[in-house]
Amino acid sequence: MKTRKLAAAAAAFLLSSTLLLGACGGGSGENTANQGGSGNGAAVEENNGSGAQGAAENNGGEGASTYVLPEGTKVTGTMPSFATEDLTGKTYTQDLFAGKDITMVNVWGTFCGPCIKEMPSLEQLSKALPDNAQIIGILCDVSLNDKSSLAAGVQIVEDAGVTFPSLLLDTNLGAFTQQFMFVPTTVFVDSQGNILDDPVVGAVFDSYVERMEQYLPGWTFN
Asked: Which residues pair with 140 in a beta bridge?
């Protein structure tokens, strides 16, 4: 029995180590996702799906989208309000979520090899999504107040041919990214800014596709 328990523990450790090979530690500095940051309270509480149901009902008003979240979807937090720029200097607020039923938010860093390596695949997914879904990035190591890594970020997305926006950190987005120990970390958000289910930690492309196909019944990635 003891041997079985040791074998099971070793297998679990090997699996977790393998998954984290596709992720980087959050790095250092106040504007990066770090180990032990508590964040701003987003994505930390589960409510057994009641929030998802409420969000779906809110979408059903006159003139609103008829989109309804799949049964069983849980709301685990809310995106913070923000006012920021992307790598090109275009301005964005949290209103960008309102125009889409589902937004995939990929938190990444210029120091993170797995983040950079998956960029071309993310662009392919972005182009394949239906009109009611989108992908955005959040750069965990470039802020509005410290753009020292801006040129690196611009070069990375240009080399990868990425066309979806990557947002710089304002105060609230900085606090949001600090709750994540590793990058890339990816969350999925509805039109109300609700975070759906648990984050995907690491560069796990198949999990992104699985989530999108879950949230967008009838759509498949080809």
From this structure: none
Residue 150: is its pLDDT beyond 50? yes
Q: Give the pTM.
A: 0.79
pLDDT of residue 222: 85
* Mean pLDDT computed over 21-49: 46
Domain boundaries, the chain: 23-215
User: What architecture (CATH level 2) is domain 23-215?
Assistant: 3-Layer(aba) Sandwich (3.40)
Q: How far apart are CA 139 and CA 166, in angstroms?
A: 6
